[in-house]
Amino acid sequence: MKSFEFECLNVKTENELIKESLEKISEGEVSIYKLSLELKENTIPKPYELSFFEKQIDIIGYYSSKSYLNHNITPDWHMRENESKTASGTPLMSFYSKMGINQLTISLSDAKTPIKISAGVVEENGKLHIKIRIFDSLSSKISKYETLIRIDRRKIPLYDIVPDTRSWWGSLGNNTAYVPDNARLPMYSTWYSFHQNTIPDEIIKECEIAKEYGMDSVIVDDGWQTEDNSRGYAYCGDWQISKQKIPDMKCFVDKIHSLGMKFIIWFSVPFVGYKSKNFERFKGMYLYDNKNMNACVLDPRFGEVREFLIDTYISYVKKYGWDGLKLDFIDSFRLSEESSTEYEKMDTVSVEDALEMLLSELDIKLKEINPEFLIEFRQSYIGPVICKYGNMLRVGDCPNDALMNRVGSISLRLTSDKIPVHSDMLMWNYEDTDESVMSQLLSIMFSVPQISVRLSGLSDSHKTLLMEFLNFWRRNREIILDGKLSFEGIYANYTMVKSEKNGQSVVVLYQSTDYSLREDKANVFNITDKDYIIVDTMCKYDYTCYDMYGNIEGGGKIQKGVSKISLKNASRVEFNKL
């Protein structure tokens, strides 16, 4: 095996190999290696691991699609890990400097096989010990395996490196899905506001208000398919509409449509609950038993399973005119020791291939019904394969957690290409302060807002805040969603974030009060604990200050150089070049 240009390349495997090679096929700051393996027989492969060392010079933290709030590099006896497969994560790990400049980014072309990239510092010498572990969890039988390993050492910002890696995945066939315009507009969700208490009349009333606020779709979440409101998934799998809750689904959908809103509904794709009528039907076709969920996980390698799921969704979409599906828990599809080995009854022995077969066939049939059909996936099912089928990617559940929503949405933006990133459903306590609610709203500035609070119960000031925020967001959504995203302070969970398009920008100062203003027009929000911002410019600007409710709180002009702008009651400053 040819060596990486690193120290001490080591290989660990218990597989009986006929062929093993690591060939460098691309030179330069971006190097690409081709790993080829040929096993002695068609068998379930054991983990195959490459490990090497990298001098930890000008490296302060790391990024992966699962790093979220923790960016610090741990010792090699407790490594940071990033796992990926078809429905979970991305095969990428980046290491960056204090200024957020890439020092080393490792990525793999294989976004389907269970892979783990790990890293930790060696205490004795200050080097990074890095591991790439392929077949990290139980995989299907294979006889051959190939993947490309990409090593990117370009000294450019992380916010350029990761999207460029995403483009590389696209060039290998992982193109992103078509995005309908409604996927790029604010939505109302019933999850935090109703949970499983699906009450059509009350939801319709909330949607009447939501439409006035600029929300153009509603996501009806868990609860529509069961009379049980104790959460859990014991009753999933039959997918019969609860007549007790929704006596007339078509009427429910029609009333939502009459408001000018799209109707999206939730399914937990893999679960068949213990108390469902279908539980006995699929015995022998489960991957494993998930006792915590009170359900078993279907095995998509069986054609009957995929046919059941697809027919269920398609029949409902045709019958009721649903505009979208929220497909949940697809990262639960994984092999276990319990999984069936009746391969002759399966269409494929690979769970990863079977999942893509499911998504691909469903995508084709849904687009035949409605080319503008909406599909939502959430973290962690956000990788290159999933982006071929989902046109909405949502931040993972983080109720009332502004920090996680901020970090999750920015992180997800880096790997999602043109797929719009949605916030986790925003909710807050009715008695919370206006300043705290504003913090929640500004945390999701760079994602498509999903709101999940009972709008009818909001105080007047909270109503004004939400209306002002959504009006601003809609006016500036092309800048926010389509502009070039950049940031500072990733190690501190993004101290400043900006999206810029055609000389106009939207900026949020989360912790830093300093901003270098170069655009023709900029809207700069201050969410720090300071009542001022410091702006460095190369020319003259006039500016107007607004409070969180949209009222003007003053303004003036600034000259070339550094200026301190007092905000007092203001939270946003609009700058225009003179």
Low-confidence stretches: none
Provide a count of the helices.
Answer: 10
Examine the secondary-structure arrangement and name the CATH architecture of the largest domain. Answer: Alpha-Beta Barrel
Helix content: 10-25%
**Rg (CA only):** 25 Å
What's the β-strand tally? Answer: 32
CATH topology of the largest domain: TIM Barrel
Q: Work out the strand percent.
A: 25-35%
The largest sheet, given as strand count, sense and whether it forms a barrel, is:
8 strands, parallel
Domain module tally: 3
Question: What would CATH call the class of the largest domain?
Answer: Alpha Beta
Globular, elongated, flat, extended or rod-shaped: what is the shape?
A: flat
Mean pLDDT: 96
Structural class: alpha/beta
CATH H level, superfamily name of the largest domain: Aldolase class I
Strand sequence of the main sheet, in spatial order? 21-20-19-18-14-13-12-22
First-last Cα distance: 62 Å
